[in-house]
Amino acid sequence: MLKEWKNCKKGDQFCPVSFKKYGSFFWTIFMLFGVAAIVANYIFESPLLLGLYAYPVVFLSLIPVRNSLYVVLSGILLGSLIVLRTPDRLHLSIIAAYVVLMVIVRRVVWISSRNYKEKNEQEDLFLNTVFSLAKTIDAKDPYTAYHSSNVANYAKKIAKEMGLSNKEIDSIYLAGLIHDIGKIGMPDSILQKEGRLTEEEYTIMKKHPEEGYKIIKDIHRLQELGITDMVLYHHERPDGKGYPRGLSGVEIPLGARILGVADAYDAMTTNRSYRQKLAIETATNEITRNIGTQFDPIAANALFKILILEGKIPKVENSLVSSKFSIAN
């Protein structure tokens, strides 16, 4: 029983939503109503008191317990109606009605549980497919072979440095892995072009956040975690000059702002078809110069703190970051 209950609370199987949060409370109510029904019908003979069995009967049919335990508990509960009083036609008809009710409720719960499991399996399969597709994007261009993984790792470190919750950190990491999924729809001639893109080609490339959003927008789990919006808005800028919506400041989801910094840093510090990678100092100077316009101040400052701790930039450089950070705010 404990295993089923833990799976219910973790969301691994279907449960009525209220039990996830108030499980202990409902167990207490169940015991009180069950005992009250048995005691009341033992002391008094009013047929109306048989209605007290309704709550424990329905509750027992809803909770996630093994079938063997369910049969035992329901047998004890309904068996008390026969043990306490000599069964007559009324008692037998009420017992039969409760049995039918339990079968119906249990059947509904079973169907819901099956559908919930199938839905999760389908989402997991689709999610794995999305991640596989995301890897194919990096594989199509030798210059960005590990870009998605790098961005995800940088974004995770930034999120940790900013003190975000574990759930937010994991969501941002997943968003980093698939942030460029929309490039699946981009022509190879653009993705693998030697040299800088023309204005027309750049316009086409700028559509990849929206294309990525279209691919994952119907995955409910990604919606709940805010990952769909992170993918859509990871090229927005604090000054409102980004794309695809031209959002500015706090209009941009925090995860997307973090991805924007991580994405730019990795792009500058890895080799590309149109240029060699930049030195870390050059990249950090470029980010510093654009804090508050292209890059979120808090996310950029967190990145610099990480690079200092990792020994990739000298500590003195943080004074420049702090100065720019205070001006941007």
Entry summary:
With 329 residues, this protein is mostly helical. The protein has helices at residues 2-10, 17-43, 54-62, 67-84, 89-140, 147-161, 166-178, 188-191, 199-205, 208-216, 220-224, 227-233, 254-268, 280-289, 297-309, 317-328. It has 16 helices and no strands.
Characterization of this structure:
The model is unreliable at 317-329 (pLDDT under 50). Helix 3 (54-62) runs parallel beside helix 5 and helix 6 runs antiparallel to helix 7 (166-178). This protein has 16 helices and no strands. It is an all-alpha fold. The protein is 68% helix and 0% strand. The chain has 2 domains: 2-119, no CATH class; 141-328, Hypothetical protein af1432, CATH 1.10.3210.10. The protein is elongated. 26% of the residues are buried. The two termini are 54 Å apart.
Number of helices: 16
The level of helicity is 55-70%
CATH topology of the largest domain: Hypothetical protein af1432
What is the domain total for the residues? 2
CATH class of the largest domain: Mainly Alpha
CATH superfamily membership of the largest domain: Hypothetical protein af1432
Gap between N and C termini: 54 Å
Instruction: Indicate the overall shape.
Output: elongated
State mean pLDDT (0 to 100 scale). 84
Find the structural class using helix and strand composition: mainly alpha
Tell me about the largest β-sheet.
none
Secondary-structure element string:
HHHHHHHHHHHHHHHH
Per DSSP E runs of 2 or more residues, the count of β-strands stands at 0
Strand percentage, roughly?
under 5%
CATH architectural label of the largest domain: Orthogonal Bundle
